[in-house]
Backbone:
């Protein structure tokens, strides 16, 4: 059985170079098609959805919009490589683990506080009582600028003005959210590395904790494709999530430039764009790589407010470009084979553990040695 496991690992190691080439080819084609896709999306937004606003823009602002958009696309393209996406996948996984630890710590603190208050306070309920309250169990941290989003009523103090260019306070939020908007020069050049500052630190902490606890390191830290099918399947899932996040960050940065230029009147939060990608938001019909949604307004008599934003999606890109769709089909064949090998690997591992447990049981119990 161990020979079967080793044989499967050897087959996977032989197939990994071909998988890497197909991953690199997919990203190469994506980088080549990305400028055209962004330009097409901006064209539809400016000429079909907001033609009056675009005509009213001064010439220097229109040229500045195109230059800054091209700079953002070029910068994002330099980050869409196998190695860069693997680093981002490790950072995102570490960030999720850290967020889960924070939520558990908050939950434990809230539970301990409520128990202490119930024991020490006068008139405490007997054991087994249930207290009903309308207060939320945890404090929710809304994304920056959410209160000022799309005319949602009274904006909080210090909220950005949607009808003007992006102010420094909003731009600071955008830098933290996207990793693509950084200190920009007159020509639109950026100086961000594409990763939020706390993500590489979280990844380093995650690696240190895994080493201290004796757990295997994350599959993205080895600098090469994993040799075990289960780890490789996890690696591929993280790779896809990192690619979606990179395109999401680029979309958010481009939408900020549209707001800065005056072509857009509202900036959809990053969390809302993510919800649209996950199918959790009802969308209106729109051209490829554009998002149209109906937003509620405080006054029920005013109806609803329609917002349009650029949202780059791999499904739209593959649908519009047969070359990219062909590369995707190759990756899907690789994934199906890896998934089949992972299922077989798990089955063999469970059987091997059962046999090892049975051997130890017989070793620890003398009366079973005769059986």
Residues:
């Amino acid at each position: 059985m161990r020979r079967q496991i080793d044989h499967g690992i050897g087959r996977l190691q032989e197939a990994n170079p071909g998988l890497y080439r197909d991953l690199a080819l997919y990203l190469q084609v994506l980088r080549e098609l990305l400028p055209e896709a962004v330009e097409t999306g901006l064209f539809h937004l400016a000429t079909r959805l907001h033609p009056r606003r675009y005509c009213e823009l001064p010439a220097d602002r229109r040229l500045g919009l195109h230059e800054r958009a091209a700079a953002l696309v070029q910068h994002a393209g330099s980050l869409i490589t196998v190695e860069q996406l693997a680093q981002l996948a490790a950072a995102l996984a570490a960030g999720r683990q850290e967020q889960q630890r924070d939520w558990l710590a908050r939950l434990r603190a809230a539970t301990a506080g409520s128990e202490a208050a119930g024991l020490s306070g006068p008139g405490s309920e007997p054991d087994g009582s249930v207290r009903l309250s309308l207060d939320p169990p945890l404090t929710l941290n809304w994304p920056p600028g959410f209160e000022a989003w799309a005319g949602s009523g009274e904006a909080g103090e210090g909220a950005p003005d949607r009808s003007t260019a992006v102010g420094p306070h909003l731009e600071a939020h955008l830098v933290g959210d996207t990793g693509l908007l950084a200190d920009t020069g007159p020509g639109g050049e950026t100086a961000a590395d594409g990763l939020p500052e706390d993500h590489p630190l979280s990844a380093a902490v995650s690696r240190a904790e895994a080493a201290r606890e004796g757990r295997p390191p994350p599959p993205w830290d080895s600098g090469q494709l994993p040799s075990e099918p289960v780890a490789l399947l996890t690696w591929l899932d993280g790779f896809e999530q990192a690619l979606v996040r990179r395109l999401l960050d680029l979309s958010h940065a481009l939408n900020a430039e549209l707001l800065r230029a005056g072509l857009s009147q509202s900036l959809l939060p990053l969390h809302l764009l993510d919800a649209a990608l996950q199918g959790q938001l009802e969308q209106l019909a729109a051209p490829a790589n554009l998002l149209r949604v109906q937003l509620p307004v405080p006054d029920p008599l005013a109806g609803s407010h329609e917002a349009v934003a650029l949202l780059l999606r791999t499904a739209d890109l593959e649908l519009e470009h047969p070359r990219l769709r062909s590369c995707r089909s190759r990756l899907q064949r690789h994934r199906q084979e890896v998934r089949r090998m992972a299922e077989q690997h798990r089955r063999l591992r469970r059987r091997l553990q059962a046999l090892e447990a049975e051997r130890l049981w017989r070793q620890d119990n003398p009366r079973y040695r005769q059986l």
Remarks:
- The radius of gyration is 26 Å.
- The mean pLDDT is 78.
